[in-house]
Amino acid sequence: MNQFRTLGKVSAYLIGRLYEENKPVFTISDAQIILSKDYNQTTDLLSEMVKRKVISRLKHGKFLIVPQEVGNVERYFGNWFIAASEVVNSTDYYIGFYSAMNHWGMLTQPLIKVFVASPKRQVVPKPLKDSLIFIYMKQKFIWGIKEEWATQTRKVRISDLEKTILDGLLYPHYCGGITEIAKGIWITRDKIDYNKLGGYVDKYGKNVAAKRLGYILEILEINAHPLLFNLRQYVKDRYDLLDPTMPNAIKNKNTWRLIDNIGKNQILNIIKY
Fold first, then answer.
1. Considering 159, 176, 209, which residue would you say is the last residue of a domain?
2. How much is the mean pLDDT over the chain?
3. Does the model's pTM come out above 0.85?
4. Is the same domain home to 125 and 52?
5. What is the extent of the structural domain holding 95?
């Protein structure tokens, strides 16, 4: 059944004009300008279009056109990276962590959530609460970002491969744990710029991330000798957990002053599958 016709000429005209202007995501103001209607008239129409499942509400005042060919429209939000970039409250955001790992080919299983880092705290809009996670990141750590094509016409900000690795090592609970990061490093080992990665370690200045990286590279026997040598400077007196998402236990001794609560063999077994 044609959704445009069930709503009449006004809704069909609005959808047509939005497509002409390449605005699959649009605001109340966009609709007002196209329709030359006042605020209340416009919001009443948009509310009716949401009920008829012609559009989805991303957040208050922002909507997404639901293509007619979509079968189940109950939770249609289009390209998730675009949806996330439209609802985040800072232009300094970036798609990161598990989502960036997926983008850079570091995962071997499908991803069902989008992780977004932002220097501003924000509550996830209700329609997206099961699929979007906002992570507060201090402004001084907003770097190492690339603009990547999410669709044929839209780019989004994504942490580059090296920043993604360091973010994951520092916040493994947003990346499936250290074993998932180790597996991602192994998968992309020939794509990593180890000089850039070393520079990022120095810029981050976080001992625990440097130690975790060094230990993983050592276990995986990845030939990055200058980087491994430089990472040794971050080994201080303090001991840190290798994986804070796992129970505290000692599985292997090491020279990185890490409490290895995973085990070398466990990491090596995981990268084989």
1. 159
2. 90
3. no
4. no
5. 80-159
Same domain for 117 and 215, yes or no, is no
Phi-psi region of 158 (alpha: psi -120 to 50; beta: other; left: phi over 0): beta
Q: Which long-range contacts (CB under 8 A, 24 or more apart) does 113-121 make?
A: 114/80, 114/81, 114/83, 114/84, 115/174, 116/84, 116/88, 117/93, 117/142, 117/159, 117/167, 118/88, 118/89, 118/90, 118/92, 118/93, 119/90, 119/92, 120/89, 120/90
Residues 155 and 170 in one domain: no
Give the CATH number, domain containing residue 23: 1.10.10
Residues 6+ apart with CB under 8 A from 171: 97, 135
Please report whether residue 218 resides in a domain.
yes
* Contact status, residue 58 vs residue 77, Cβ threshold 8 Å: yes
* Number of structural domains in the chain: 3
pLDDT tens digits, one per residue of 56-96: 888 889 998 887 655 444 555 568 898 899 899 999 999 99
For residue range 4-42, what is the model confidence (pLDDT) as tens digits?
445 578 998 999 999 898 888 899 999 999 999 999 999
Q: Which two tokens stand for residue 220?
A: 């995986």
- Cα–Cα dist 232/224, whole Å: 13
191 & 117 share domain: no
